[in-house]
TrEMBL record:
The gene is Psph. Its cofactor is Mg(2+). The active site is at D20, D22. CDD domains: HAD_PSP_eu. It is an enzyme of class 3 (hydrolase). It comes from Galbula dea. The lineage of its organism: Eukaryota, Metazoa, Chordata, Craniata, Vertebrata. This is Phosphoserine phosphatase. Catalyzes the last irreversible step in the biosynthesis of L-serine from carbohydrates, the dephosphorylation of O-phospho-L-serine to L-serine. L-serine can then be used in protein synthesis, to produce other amino acids, in nucleotide metabolism or in glutathione synthesis, or can be racemized to D-serine, a neuromodulator. May also act on O-phospho-D-serine. Transmembrane segments: none annotated. Gene3D superfamilies: HAD superfamily/HAD-like. PANTHER family: PHOSPHOSERINE PHOSPHATASE (PTHR43344). InterPro entries: HAD-like_SerB (IPR050582), HAD-like_sf (IPR036412), HAD_sf (IPR023214), PSP (IPR004469). Its EC number is 3.1.3.3.
Amino acid sequence: MASLLEMKEIFRNADAVCFDVDSTVIREEGIDELAKFCGVGDAVAEMTRRAMGGSVTFKAALTARLGLIRPSYEQVQKLISDNPPQLTPGIRELVSRLHQRGVQVFLVSGGFQSIVEHVALQLNIPTANVFANRLKFYFNGEYAGFDETQPTSESGGKGKVITHLKEQFHFKKVVMIGDGATDMEACPPADCFIGFGGNVIRKQVKEKAKWYITHFDELLKELEER
C-alpha cells in the first residue's frame, strides 16, 4: 500500500488523471439537478445519498432514480442551457496545468454524457476523453431508459474504464480523483486515489482515503514542487 509521499510522487509523474464529475469537477450532482428541474428533486436526492454512501449498487440506484425522473430530451437540453453546471473553483487551472505537462485528462462519470460533454468543452478536454452514461429517448423525445452497456452504469465501472485506458494507451501511472465510493473503488486499477471534499464530504471516503483534499489548489501546489 502506497504511503502519502509515494502517492504524491505518483500524482506528479502521472501519465493520465481521471476526474469524477458530479460534486468534483462541478459543484452539483447532475442527476439531482435534473430531478429538481423535472419536479422530483427530494425523492431523488435521498436515493443519490444512499448510492454515494455505497449502500446500494450504482446501477440499481441509477435505474430507480431515472425511473422517477423520466427526463425528456427537451428537458435535458433545457437544463443545460438554463442551468449550466458550475465548475468547482480551481479545476480550470488544474486541468490547464496538467495539459501543459502533457498529462492526459479524462472525465469518468456516473452522470450523463450530454451534461459531461458540456463540462469537457469548458475545460478543453476532448469528448473522446469522456466516459459517462447515455440516456436513451424515443423518436418523440420521451425518456426510453439508459444505455446499460456503458461501464459507468454499474458499480465497479470506473475501474473498468481505467483498465481499458491502461490497455489502450499503455499508461504507467493513472490517478483517480473523486468524492464518492465509486471513485475510491477504482483504485486499483488506478495507481492512486485522491479523495475530494470541496463540494460535499462523504464520511466513508474521508475516513478511508489516504490522500484527501478540499481544494484543487492543493494539487496545483504539488505540481509546482517539481
